[in-house]
Amino acid sequence: MTRLRGLVLQLATIAILSAAAVTVASLWFGNAVYGDRARPRVETTVVVPRGSTTAQVARLLAERGIIRSAFVLQLLARLRHDDARIEAGEFRFAPGESVDEVLRHLLGGGAQVAVWVTLPEGFTMRQIAQTLADHGLGSAEGYERTFATSSIIVDGTRTKSLEGFLFPSTYLIPTNATPSSVARILTDQFRAELPRDAAGRAHALGISVVDAVTLASLIEREAQANDERPLMAGVYYNRLRRGMPLEVDATIEYTFPEHKTEITRADLASDSPYNTYRHVGLPPTPIANPGLPSLRAALNPQASSYLYYVYKGNGHHAFARTLAEHNANVARYLR
Length: 335
Prior knowledge:
By secondary structure, this protein is an alpha+beta fold.
């Protein structure tokens, strides 16, 4: 009986201590989450890199003095199942915010002042406009209108629009940016990335830098393997010198409002200035925004006697010198 009474007393003591521990832990956690306000006492801006984990974000904020404990932010995010929802970008935190407030900001709660946007190589200005709109940076129509009606001067030549000159990259775009300011960011990056010898190389090839960008846009839309880009550029230059139509499907597709999986005979017969089957020379403007590999290829074509190519699969093309060779390749790879 005495032994049973002792056991009950031990269990009661354990229960009381456990309850006390839970209470203390709850009070500590609640204070850490809602009441423990960190320094600094001034507004602070922090850039969260793309691909950051919750632990990395928490450490970054603790190092910057936005929160006192990285552990508390991690724990709170895990308890709320918000680990995967933390956004990347630039955030502005008010003085002395709690961990709860900081986490809400990281989940899109209004403190974000810039967002990361990736613009892939080969996107048209219409696709770029839609991508920017998808990131909450304004309307696609507003961006497309600005891109279509704006121009820049490249090596003394004024462009007809910004198609081809909106450099594909990853940008941190302010949430209050206007279409004009975004256009300036993208075209400034184009100027920074354009090879320094672009003018000299283009003139040696008998074209302007703007024409080289147009040619690079064709390479961007047609080539997949980087090692084939200079060879494809060589094909285009060979055909231009001989007065042959370029016959690039991507130029015809550029005029379509939506992507088409197949170019029809009717499409090939269209009188569009972008129809490089009917019109000799380059199209009136670039048909996409090329990346650096395509720009370099357009300025440094690989010399060859090839005049034709056809896609053979796995990201590669079969090149030919004569129409007979080309027709054989077409029969082989486009059965």
